Amino acid sequence: MRHAPVALRCALAVVLAGAAVGAGASPALAAGDPLALTNGFYVDPNTSAATWVASHRADGRAASIKTSIADRPMARWFGNWSGDIGQAVGAFVGAADQADRLPVLVAYNLPGRDACGGHSAGGAGSPAAYYTWISAFADAIKDRPAIVIVEPDALGDFACMDAAAISTRNDLLRFASTQFRDRSPNTWAYLDAGNAGWVAANVMAGRLHAAGLANVRGFSVNVSNYYTTGQSATYGSSVNAALSRHGYQRSYVIDTSRNGNGSNGQWCNPAGRRIGTPPQKGGGAELLLWIKAPGESDGACGTAPGSPAGSFDPQLAYNLIYGY
Length: 324
What we know:
TIM Barrel; 8-stranded mixed beta sheet; alpha/beta
């Protein structure tokens, strides 16, 4: 049930956020608090895990996957597979708004996405196409509450890119940051900052700043990876310490979807990992979120050599529940 019409709740949240500006918050962040505007995180009934459970109820793994994964709130990823992005985002955010719950979305469509890793290659066909796509994404949210993770891996994936490609990527991310700032006033957007074992914190701080971090709520850590919440919080705090050189700091969120057993140094469907703390406010960061959907493959590698990136593998999901 709604506690108040969205417009009224938005107005109240803006008043409260305005008071926070005087306490040192950036004016760019003086918008509605999506947590205050909703009643908990949205559980998407159409995740790959939920879809698999619905069609495999007789499978001995189904009950565990339903309880431990499918019934948990997690992010919906949007990319070039999503069709009309305005319709896709609008429908998802609208369903969450009707339920008075907070949706988590991932924008994942940069041209040359996963340029160095290759398992999730793709993205918009050109910078111009991306400008159109990300504008429509932000515009479809409108003033409804949402959390958006912006382009996982984009600022860690520089090793094989030349200076011109990096400059173009920064231009695209800065543009994306302005779209969420200007078009989605009750959205908290977070630029992705990789993970604790990838890019040094001081280097990542510089990359975030160049990519428009000052325009959005903060940054995300550990997306689709396995570092513990403690390790990720230490990394996030170190990034913030380095950001101080640019005159500001930002909140950060941690992906805890698969970090229950920590990292063994491998990233692509490694054995022995486990689901982590369910989504919540606080817990070592501003938010702990399930950004990577447990059971969805990292690529045709590791313990799931026959599962392409993004496909649901019930055995991967089952292994994550029990730490196999």
